[in-house]
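Section 3.1 - Work completed
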Amino acid sequence: MVLVASAVVKVAPYYIEFNSVKSMMKEIAGESGIKTANKHTINSKVAKYLNVNNLYGLEKVFYASKNDPKIKNPFQIERIKKGNNRKKLVVNYPVETPWISNLSFLIKFEHSVILGEPDNISGQ
């Protein structure tokens, strides 16, 4: 029972953070003019939200990708095939957190929203 409780204590904050990431993406997708915004503008909005909301697990990967070309940016902007120039914002990132001794949890998060359509989630 103690092991289960300690595992929950270790991973729960990252799931709470992921809910904030999904809300952030929905807000970005709903901003006016986002449908036609370029990649730089969208990435600037993402960075602004990350700084304001203190999303530590995601921030670590996001800023590491800026300094190391081997690390992929967790946020990607993809064109939707058969979508009349529609784009989606996709986040895909791992979080590793130590647990007991040499055991760790590796949690992989993925979510996407269609830009300009905040209520239209294209994948979980």
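Second construct:
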Amino acid sequence: MTIEEQTKTDLIKYKLEQARETIEVVDLLLKNDKFSTAVNRIYYGMFYSILALALQNDYETSKHQQLIGWFNK
């Protein structure tokens, strides 16, 4: 595995961990009736997960609309 491949793999793992941690917070928010913030965290958890998927498929962007467009294809 090249350094570039390892860096990509590490970034994918990081994004998936970021997604998992973000979504874990949702349970606490829901238990405390913080519904709007819970929806926001769910959105970002999904965003980080889709970013990892995009990276795995050699698509890179930090723009939400571009990522959503790519995912919809």
